[in-house]
Amino acid sequence: MELNVADILKIAGKTGSARLTESVAGIDLSGKSIVLSEPVTVDASYIFDGEGISLTGTLSSAVRMNCTRCNDEFTEDFAVDFSERFLRIPEEQAEEQECYSFTGDTLSLDKMIQDILILNAPMYGVCKPDCKGLCPSCGANLNYQKCSCCEADDNSPFAALKGLKELLKDQ
Ligand SMILES: [Zn+2]
Ligand SMILES: [Zn+2]
After folding, report:
1. Tens digits of residue pLDDT in 90-119
2. Whole-angstrom Cα distance, residue 88 to residue 102?
3. 22 C-alpha vs ligand 1 centroid, how far in Å?
């Protein structure tokens, strides 16, 4: 993703804003990957202070992942606020100063986007707050079906007590 900042580089103190959207390939981390189900949108405002550019805004997208309870695939929207600085210095030097480098009058946002995703994209979650998960005995997805192990559960003392309470309520 590229942001052209030619219009603010002439005068210090000048500001600009932009909304950019671009598909970003998934990111592979050791053993785990971030899979985006929607393009990344960057909403940013920026200012040139005579030396570098400060870029602040929000990055949003959605990730596709597997529920930690039932293992079903689902997507989750997320938005992350960021505030970064871009300087006209070599990349290695920028890394030491914890900022990003740029040349010419265009900021390449790819590295910043990748860093934000690695640090902030949700990687674990449940498909819905009341996900029932998998049966620990037979592995059935309890969101879709009731297995015979669950029926056995209905014979537990608690289930019997619940049944009794409902009986009393009806009278
Ligand atoms: Zn689930
Ligand atoms: Zn079961």
Report:
1. 999 999 999 999 999 999 999 999 999 999
2. 5
3. 29
Domain borders along the chain are 2-120, 132-171
Please choose, from the candidates 64, 68, 67, 53, the residue with its C-alpha nearest in 3D space to the C-alpha of residue 10. 53
Are residues 20 and 3 in contact, defined by beta-carbon separation less than 8 angstroms? yes
Nearest bound ligand to the CA of residue 133 = 1
| Residue carrying the six token digits 């070599």 | 90
Please tell me the distance from the alpha carbon of residue 141 to that of residue 144, in angstroms, as a whole number.
Answer: 6
- For residue 84, give the amino acid letter: E
pLDDT digits (tens, 9 = 90+) for 46-61: 999 999 999 999 999 9
Is the CA virtual torsion 48, 44, 59, 108 positive or negative?
negative
